[in-house]
Amino acid sequence: MVSLDSPITIIRPEIIEFGVGTAERLGKWASDKGYARILVISDAFNATRVDTLGLKGEVTVFADVTPEPDTANLDKVLAAANAADAQLVVGFGGGSAMDLAKLAAVLAGSSQTLRDVVGPNKVHGPRGVALAQVPTTAGTGSEAGIRALVTDPETMAKLAVESIHMLADIAVIDPALTFTVPARTTAATGVDAMAHCVEAFTNRKAHPMIDLYAIEGTRLVGKYLARAVKDGADAEARAGLALASLYGGFCLGPVNTAGGHALAYPLGTRWHIAHGAANALIFPHVLAFNTPSVPEKTRAVMDALGRKTSDDVQSVFDAAYSFCADLGIEMKLSALGVPDSDLDAMADDAFAIRRLLDNNPRDLACADIRSIYEAAY
């Protein structure tokens, strides 16, 4: 873990609107800025409620965002963005829509291609269009971040782009937009938000300035996730999760995730398991594995979730597993259609994600990853 006097850079959207009923504030902001041509990037469901954003002028809606988007989906988005010649790009949906909006904002009309910008700080700036993000789930925290992920269908790997030029000018977080999220999706995305916080908190790059958000985001999930799963219209619970998701997004920029996300990614790229569900299934295994390296922080995590444990690995695993399982999350790979013949390839894929595994507080060998998949099977 880094020390208090270690340098760190904190980046936030210039404007963050938060609270029930704030969605329509985006329209006033856009009008005040004089944006007349607007492209909204969304999935099919959220495309039906773009009017909640109060946008005026020539509004084009791209409604074909897919879960775990790949490069082909990005190509469609970029074609739509070039055709719209928008002054403002809006990501309206979950992390997939918001990530594609980031990439559209910097690549549409640019001489750079996706391959040119994969990695950190390769985007040429400044960008020529404004960017707004409006999340409709409480999980990814993508509205506050500077990273975007798309899948390469040939290699089954996530291509990660990181750039300050993908930071939103405004993030509008209206918990009312999450009222319609089904219970199972609420549970999985909520654990994803918590995993962002926990992996940052226990990270080799963990920093006290981020720990503040990480442990509070974890506490919010512990307090409100079960309530939101039980009653999707519980406004206080939905707001608590939206805030936890935002805090998780704050964790991603300067610290990022670690082993849990590395092991979850192959489930999505190879077997199209939703990102939140994959993270929830993996979470207790990696948390328990890491416990010997970060016992005090693990204890703080479990306390924040309302689960008392000892420093014993099995105790931590049992408590974390029950937290997820009690929410109705499927916790077995076999039940999600993953064949055991693919576990070796999945382990190889996960082991190659060094940008995350190198953050993990305890070294994860390829054999360790294979053992975790086997235990989760």
Provide a descriptive summary of the structure in words.
The protein is of the alpha/beta class and 377 residues long. Helices cover 47% and strands 12% of the residues. It is built from 15 helices and 9 strands. The strands form 2 sheets. The chain has a 6-stranded parallel β-sheet with strand order 1-9-6-4-2-3, sandwiched between helices. Strands 5-8-7 form a 3-stranded mixed β-sheet. α6 (183-201) packs parallel to α8 and α9 (259-271) packs antiparallel against α10 (275-290). The longest helix is centred in the middle third of the chain and has 23 residues, at 208-230. The two termini are 32 Å apart.
What ranges have pLDDT less than 50 throughout 5 or more consecutive residues? none
**Class computed from helices, strands and strand pairing:** alpha/beta
Strand residues, percent: 5-15%
| Secondary structure: number of strands | 9
The general outline is globular
Distance between the termini: 32 Å
**Helical fraction:** 40-55%
**How many DSSP H or I helices?**
15
Order of SSEs: EHEHEHEHHEEEEEHHHHHHHHHH
Reported for the largest beta sheet, the result is: 6 strands, parallel
Biggest sheet strand line-up? 1-9-6-4-2-3
Give the integer mean of the pLDDT values. Answer: 95
Rg, nearest Å: 20 Å
Helices and strands in order:
Layout: E1 15-18, H1 25-33, E2 37-42, H2 44-47, E3 58-62, H3 71-84, E4 88-93, H4 95-107, H5 114-117, E5 119-120, E6 130-135, E7 147-152, E8 157-162, E9 170-173, H6 183-201, H7 208-230, H8 235-252, H9 259-271, H10 275-290, H11 295-304, H12 313-325, H13 343-351, H14 354-357, H15 366-375
Parallel strand pairs: 1-9, 2-3, 2-4, 4-6, 5-8, 6-9
Antiparallel strand pairs: 7-8
Helix pairs in contact: 3-4, 6-7, 6-8, 6-10, 7-8, 7-11, 9-10, 9-13, 10-12, 13-15
